[in-house]
Structure formats: structure tokens, C-alpha cells
Design goal:
With 558 residues, the chain is an alpha/beta fold. The protein is built from 19 helices and 28 strands. Helix 13 links the parallel strand 17 and strand 18. Helix 14 packs across helix 15 and helix 17 packs parallel to helix 18. The longest helix has 14 residues.
Length: 558
Amino acid sequence: MNILSISITDAGRQHATHLPYAAEHGDLARTVRERWNDVDAFVLFCSVGIAVRVVGPLLDDKSTDPAVVVVDDAGAHVVALAGGHHGANDLAIDVATLLGAVAVVSTATDVTATPALDTPAGFVAVGNVAEITRRMLDGDPVRLGFSADLTHWPIPDSLAHLIDVPAGDGAEIIVSDRKSARAVDVVLHPPTLVVGIGSSTDAAENAASELLDAALDEHDLARESIALVATIDRRATHPVVTSLGLPIRSFTSTDLAAVEVPNPSDVVAAEVGTPSVAEAAALLAAGPGGQLVVTKRKGATATVAIARRAAPEGSLQVVGLGPGDAKHRTPEAGTAIRHADVVIGYEYYVDQCTDLCRASQEIVRSPIGAEIDRCIEAVERAAKGQRVALVCSGDPGIFAMATLVLDVAARYGHPPIHIVPGVTASLAAASILGAPLAHDHALVSLSDLLTPWAVIEQRLHALAAGDLAVAFYNPRSRRRITQLEAARDILLTARGATTPVGIVVNATREGERVIATTLGEMDTAEVDMFSIVVVGSSTTEWSNGRMVTPRGYDSALA
């Protein structure tokens, strides 16, 4: 999101410096008016009354207006003022987390844990959403049904109880990818449709869109249910595809040629190496059980086909939460967690991101040591169509869950997996110490639970000979008390006893503590599993209280 914070007092300006958004100070009313159409959200440091008077005349449509949150001058409360389900509620929680404030969210569905029809993951709500939501809040009967094509389509658990309401009682919600379904009160359009596109190199930008519009009208299909566009890899960046503004998935000619289609073409095969692009791409992207609902439609320079998925496409986001403090958590991590159907993780890590979780999500906490079980459950759920966020500390690819997830995925058909990077513990500790990892360095786990100690020893000897700075993960626990001492002794065979060592306990978290010492004087008893131990190279030094490994600019600065 493009977010702008605006302050009018010195206190507000100071609070704004703690937020990762563009900031302006001064004439709040003028700035809001001038920027209303080119930002996604405002964070206004002022009273609610001032904000209401400024924003009120500008409000038009909640689906297109920027979200607005208000922070009081003390930085104690963050109010979601406008656009609650269009970004304001989430933004208020983010700002409150960063400022150590209280988020004030007044959206009725949020505060009463009533399902919000405009937020179910993967669905687009069309119709009289506000009125039906009011009826649900008042306890009036509201029934949920399905069109004939989608009786199998899963819905959020928060809406499941509506299926049991007798037909004919009260208002009606229907899950459908048909345009004609809009005769009922509210339609939830699920992401069932995949559009396949083929085109010539010289196709005009609108060549496929015109064919698509005609196909949707002729076959009574809702544009809101289009999940993505699929095509051959050589057309993935062509305007005929990108102009549709939908997610794009591309395949090689070899992949496409393996798909049986009703309308193959020898001409297309000779040109691009596959007898079908539009139909084959649609079926391939629709996944197992997908069926064509619109066979190939030909234009002068483009072809379009539409397939319907048999089930939702699940996904797994392996999310690095960073070292602990929310300010070191990336926006991508927050988005992945908020948009998940289920959040899975070691209980301590799940607790670090509860501010991002919604009442409608399923939260699965597991104990330490259950890493394999966690990964299997996450991959299984993704393979069955759920959107899963598997959370871990630091970066998921560094002594964390990414490797195990990718190993497990092969057993379950490789559901879509995305690794969301995070700030790893060594980087957090290094930033606190100064710049000890500024030159070549290594990261080593001293845990021998998964790696034999003999192998770790061999690597330590290589590190000592290579004169690399090193950050030790898992340096010492209640049961593993000798490994750090052994590592110290190995390094001492190749570097001096005065080599700087920095120990950071609880980096960026509550209880953060820094111990500045040397390799010869390091007291390993001060180290635990919440510590990162950074040992310098032969060039590392303590300079004005900071641990620094020179990069080599010394001669240039002389």
C-alpha cells in the first residue's frame, strides 16, 4: 500500500518517525485534499473530530476511497476511521503495534466475531452486502447455498452454520461463478475460473479482452470468479495478456503439448511447439479435475478458452517473522499471514504474530520438536486447497523450516509454495553490535541434533583457517554445554585470544542484552538458546563501543 502519514504537532511528527511510511507535516487538511486520489491510505496524527471534518466531504465509495486511521497526540490510540475492511482495520493494528498503542476497531463484524461477507478469503461479494450483514448482526435468518456447479466448493468455517438455515427462510447468499446468480441478495464469487490465452506477436492489446467479454456473456460466467490468466511462457509479458490486470501463470511449450485438448491446431504446433495454447494453458492452470467450460474462441490474432477448477488451489507461504519485534517484520510477512485460511507454527512463534490473525482463521499451535509434523500438516492442507501460512522465527531458509517444507512437498504433488524472507538472528545481532559481518562471514549452528558433531568440528577448523567472522546459532542449551567451548578452542588455534566477540541475548526483543568480550575471555555460561554469538576475524576490532570488521575502504579513506 502507498501510505502517507500527516502530522500537525511536534508530538505527532515524532510519532510518525516510528512508522515506515512517507510523512508530511503541516497543513493536514490541504495535504489530504491534494493527495486523496493518489494514496491508498492515510495515517493522520490529530483528533478524530479534525479528521472527520477533513475527510467527510471527500468520501465517495468505500471500495475506492483511501483507508483512513487516526492517531491521538499521545500516540496511545489508533482509530480505524474509514475503510475498515478495505485496509483501515489492518493498518490501525499495524500502526498500533509499531507505536505500542491500542488499536480501536469499531467495525461491527470484527468486534462481534460475525462473518464479514466482504472479506472471506478468495471470494468476491456482490449484492446487498451491507443489508445482509446487518441482518446477520441482528440474528435474522440468513441462508447460504450453492449453484449446481459448485456444491462441492469449500467455504470459510465462519459461514458454515448458514448452510443449515431452511430454504425459503430469510435472506439468501449463494456461492456461484454465474452472472445470473445475482438475483439473490448476495453472491459470493469464488476463484473457480482460469482463462487461457494464445496470441500472435502482433496482437493488439485488446485482442483477447474482447473475446473474453463475449465468452463470459455467452456462457453466463462472472468476471469476479476469474482467478488467473494462463498462457505460453513467450507471451507472459505481452500486452494482450498483461492488460487484463489479472495474475498470470505461464507454461513451456513442452508442458502445454502434453495436455489433451478438443481443438488442437497443426498451425499452432508448427509455430510454437504445441498444438494448443489457450485450451491447454487453461486446463493446466486449472489443476487436477479441471474442465473446459468455454472451448477455444478464435479472433484474428488471439484465442481464448476458460476452464473451471474442480477445487480451490491451495498455497503454502513459509513466513519468516524476523527476530521478534514487529518493526522488523516485513510487509510481505504480514500480508501472507492476514490472507491465510490457517496459520501454523511453534506456539512461541505464533504468539509473535497474533496481532495479524483474524477470528475467522484457524490457528494451529504445536510444541517445540514437532517440526516434521508441522511441515507435513502445512503441506497437506495446502494440497487440499487451503491457503496456509507456516510461521517461523528469523528467515525460513536459515536453520528453519523452508528446506523441510520443500522436501515434504514432493509427497503431496508440489502445491504452490512461496518462501517469505525475514530478518535472520545474525543480522539482527550484527546491527546491534555494529558491523561485525561486513566482510566475508559464515553462519554455523552448534546444535548436533541433526548434524553430527564431527562434521561441525570439521567446518569449524575450515572457518578458523579461512579467517572468517562467524555467527553461532543454537550456541548452548541446558543439555548442550560443551559445544560452544569446543568451538572457541578450535578458533583459538588460528586467531588471537583478543579477537572481539559479541554476544547478543534476545536480539531486538524484550530483555535484550549485549556482552562485549574477547575469544580468550568469553564466559560460555552467559550464553543460552536465545543468544547469538558473533566472533570476529583477525581484522575485527572494537571501535567506539561498536564491533567492526573492515570491508577494505581504509586505503580509500586515507
